[in-house]
Design goal:
Helices cover 62% and strands 0% of the residues. It is an all-alpha fold.
């Protein structure tokens, strides 16, 4: 009995498609396994080859050649972390301005990307206003 033919499309065997699909993921999986093995071998070799001779001097906290004085715990005010967090937020958000500028210059996207960017900058402004209202931006 002859095989049926499909007019306007080629017959594709689903097993071949599935095999190609999983073969591409097997390369990624193999690369991940090789990477994990490489790191495991490096850490294992380091553990086997390093000298282990603990002495009281080696167990002391080292601060730029000066013997430590006082407690080992220091309290850090959280506001420094808040400033760092705000900086990271606005630095990452400013990175989105560069691709926007290239799309804005393309034909047919000007008005749409301009509106989208003002919405984006509006969200940033609301976040900055919230931080200001909470008193995060006051240095005391």
């Amino acid at each position: 009995m002859p095989e049926p033919t499909v007019v306007g499309a080629s017959a594709v065997d689903p097993t071949v498609v599935a095999a190609d699909y999983f073969q591409s993921y097997s390369v990624v999986g193999l690369l991940a396994v090789v990477g994990v093995l490489f790191v495991a071998v490096a850490f294992g070799a380091g553990r086997l080859l390093r000298p282990v001779v603990p002495t009281p001097e080696k167990l002391l906290t080292y601060e730029c050649g000066v013997d430590p004085v006082g407690e080992g715990w220091a309290h850090t005010q959280v506001r420094y972390y808040v400033y760092a967090f705000l900086y990271v937020i606005f630095a990452v958000d400013s990175i989105f301005l560069f691709p926007w500028a290239t799309v804005f210059a393309a034909d047919g996207y000007g008005a749409t990307t301009l509106v989208e960017m003002f919405i984006f900058l509006g969200f940033l402004a609301v976040g900055l206003l919230y931080a200001y209202k909470k008193g995060v931006l006051t240095w005391t």
